[in-house]
Automatic annotation (TrEMBL):
PANTHER family, per the entry: PHAGE-LIKE ELEMENT PBSX PROTEIN XKDP, POTASSIUM BINDING PROTEIN KBP
Signal peptide limits: 1-17
Lineage, top ranks: Bacteria, Pseudomonadati, Pseudomonadota, Gammaproteobacteria, Pseudomonadales
InterPro entries the record matches: Bact_Kbp
Superkingdom as given in the UniProt entry: Bacteria
Name of the protein in its database record: Peptidoglycan-binding protein
Sorted UniProt keywords: Signal
Length: 258
């Protein structure tokens, strides 16, 4: 009996490790950072996704505008049952740093508007602006918010490697709760909720005695949470950073122990 009890006590930790572990959901600060970011940032898989979207023809009295509540007139397929629209302008095109393949484009946030009346020209009321709204600006349906449950992914996602290729808010040094653009997406196996390790490439220095060029070891420098995936690109949020991160830093699927 004692021997059996001893075996059970010794085996218990290993048995627990084999059981499915509870998945941690993002804390409130992380969720808020994600939702704020998605209000102002959007990726489109193809330039045609923006070029074929409904567009603003004019504002009140034909002038350029930028005030809450002002009316704009648009042409295109606008659905009154989904009344909230983002106003966007074509921004940066993203290409793969190694293959130069076009991965998608950034839709620059101009503001938001709400459906008012339909007609040959649809009338919308401006709700929020970040810059002047211009004729030709495009209208896209509002994105659904990120559900925290969708970010609770079991540790079965495939192994993926890639690079940080942009920081949408324009900073050069990336820290905790900053969002970054990644050059991998759904087609590469990235899933929302996946954790990625950021690796800083070791610098190449000259050996003072031999004169030979010597590469220092790569170092793990942070952890990213993938919170929105597109076909060829994704957004990740920095959860941890032991040193400033930067564009061109490499990432790979995080080990479960990290």
């Amino acid at each position: 009996m004692r021997k059996s009890l001893l075996v059970l006590l010794l085996w218990a930790p290993f048995a627990m490790a084999l059981l499915p572990q509870p998945v941690q959901r993002p804390d409130q600060a992380t969720q808020q950072a994600i939702q704020r970011f998605l209000l102002h940032n959007r990726i489109l898989d193809s330039p045609l996704d923006l070029d074929n979207a409904p567009y603003i023809v004019a504002a009140n009295a034909g002038r350029v505008l930028g005030a809450h509540g002002e009316r704009v007139y648009a042409r295109g397929d606008l659905d009154p049952s989904q009344p909230d629209y983002g106003i966007f302008r074509r921004g940066k095109a993203y290409t793969d740093p190694q293959t130069q393949e076009l991965l998608g484009i950034n839709a620059d946030d101009v503001g938001t508007a709400r459906f008012v009346t339909a007609g040959d020209l649809t009338t919308l009321a401006v709700q929020r602006v970040t810059q002047e709204v211009r004729p030709g600006d495009r209208l896209l349906r509002a994105q659904s918010p990120v559900d925290s449950a969708s970010l609770a992914v079991p540790p079965t996602a495939p192994s993926v490697e890639g690079h940080i290729i942009d920081v949408p808010k324009g900073v050069t040094q990336i820290g905790v709760l900053d969002a970054v653009t990644l050059n991998k997406g759904r087609r590469d196996g990235l899933v929302e909720g996946q954790l990625l390790s950021v690796i800083k490439t070791g610098a190449t220095v000259r050996d003072g005695l031999t004169g030979a060029a010597t590469k220092l070891p790569d170092e793990r420098a942070g952890t990213l949470l993938v919170f929105r995936t597109y076909e060829k690109l994704s957004y990740g949020l920095v959860l941890k950073a032991s040193r400033p991160l930067a564009v061109a830093d490499r990432f790979e699927t995080a080990r479960h122990s990290e």
